[in-house]
Amino acid sequence: IHLKLELSNNDIVDKSSIYIFEVLKGSKFTIQLNLSDNNITIEGIKSLAEVSKESKITKLNLRDNKIGDE
To answer: 67 phi and psi, to 5 degrees?
Structure first.
């Protein structure tokens, strides 16, 4: 089974993204995750890096977040 999660443009911040990543950790399903146009910073990305080893995210869109130099 393949899940496609469309969560773009939802004002998601780091704390919310951490919850999303934790839910996806250990999923039996492959996942396409679109988190574009939110408010995720490098802290949220660090959380993603930690759980990505235990998830099956096959496609990830983080375009237009607050990652990097602003």
So the answer is: -95, 125
Of 35, 38, 29, the C-alpha closest to 48 is: 35
* pLDDT tens sequence across 8-53: 999 999 999 989 988 888 888 999 999 999 999 999 999 888 888 8
Q: Give yes or no for residue 69 having a pLDDT over 80.
A: no
User: How far lies 59's CA from each of 2, 5, 30, 31, 69, in Å?
Assistant: 11, 10, 9, 7, 24
Name the burial class of residue 22, with classes exposed (0-12), middle (13-18) and buried (19+) by CB atoms within 10 angstroms of its CB.
middle
Residue 4, SS3?
Answer: strand
Helix (H) or strand (E) holding 18, with range, is helix 14-24
